[in-house]
Amino acid sequence: MKPLGPIPAGYEALDGELAIAGRKASALVAEAGSTPLFVYSRQHLERRAAQLRAAMPRRIAIHYAMKANPFTPVLQAMSDLVDGFDVASGGELAMALAAGLDPARISFAGPGKRTAELESAISAGTTLNLESEGELDRALAAGERLGIRPRLAIRVNPDFDLKGSGMKMGGGAKQFGVDAERVPEMARQVIASGAEWRGFHIFAGSQALDADAIIETQAQTLALAARLADQSGAPLPHCNLGGGFGIPYFPGDQALDIEAIGSALETAFGALPDSLASTDFCIELGRFLVGEAGVYLTRIVDRKVSHGETFLIVDGGLHHQLAASGNFGTVVRRNYPVAIASRFDAPVAEEANVVGCLCTPLDRLADKGGFPHADVGDLVAVFCAGAYGASASPALFLGHGPAAEMLV
Ligand SMILES: *Cc1c(COP(=O)(O)O)cnc(C)c1O
Questions:
Q1: CATH for 12-40+292-407, among 3.40.640.10, 3.40.50.720, 3.30.300.30, 2.40.37.10?
Q2: Which atom of ligand 1 is nearest to the CA of 291?
Q3: Which of 6, 47, 304, 306 has the most CB atoms around it within 10 Å of its CB?
Q4: How far is it, in rounded angstroms, from Cα 381 to Cα 376?
């Protein structure tokens, strides 16, 4: 048997079934009308945001990176829980605006912004995190055409990365941001242009579970911001310190110690250099805020045995939950937390593979996991499905169509 990932806190059995926010999986499926289904829990979102606020210094604002989960009801729920939103495309900006989010609380990072995307951000009053000198030229020209003063920050490609992070997004040659040594010149240009100077965005990596690595990166980020601000010759109004807070997905993963990060930041804020004394700081988090609040529910449609191995074949798969199949940024396939939702408190009785209904061997949601005996009609839950699930999976592949989504 291979171990399964750890089921996040806050999921209990009710009458033998998995309950999400106090409601049984079967009742949620009945309400949705069908499987597969993503269920996101407002309680979980609120609890997580409250834990984070309690751990972080008051001075730091919390932004939600909506690429983790752009479902409109989730965006609206997050609107009361965070201070700002980060979008990474014109499409995300349009979704954020349609959800009623305040454009002044939104910033827009992402390489390769088209001129039309720059224009819609400038028109809305959203801050642009510029990814290149060329983007600065186009943003200034767009501002001039529109007769609107653009709000401009520079995304810095730092000369370090976040150690132990699942996805490195800084350090060395990157398509993200502007190499640190060219930033002061570019910042002077922004300031001289008459645009509203919004400071730096410095993002070094993602999915780290080691608090010491994040603490070290934040210290390096503050030092870099101070140096670049000094060289830019103007006080720094705002600095986005990035994020990288991970969640446990796999066997042996331990939850991130956010208290340690918060107290290190508090200490760092107590000893800021003059150039950062009046800077507003934020962090931007995606999966940490929403990942554990989501569960993917799918129904077993067939049970079969091949060469002695049991296969539970479900009506969902990697077309909705690519990451759980091990095909979204992982090198070695390991099991996500997966359970039989309709027999949530039953003891392990057999080893089984949970596979999706796609005609490809990549579509495996659990490999040789230990499960209670389950059969056709039973519901399977894949946890940690609140981030990079529905919107980060190839829903068109094989024509089964998208999953339903609901916030409860
Ligand atoms: C993807 C991304 C995030 C969110 O990453 P998580 O690992 O979900 O926290 C934040 N900021 C930027 C710039 C990103 O590209």
A1: 2.40.37.10
A2: 8
A3: 6
A4: 14
